[in-house]
Amino acid sequence: MNFLLTWLHWGLAALLYFHNAKLSQAAPAQGDEEKQPSEVIQFLEVFDRSRCRSIETMVDIFQEYPDEVEYIFKPSCVPLLRCAGCCNDEALECVPIEVHNVTMEIMRIKYHQGQHINQMSFQQHKTCECRCEKP
Question: Which interval of the chain is the signal sequence (predicted)?
Answer without folding.
Answer: 1-26
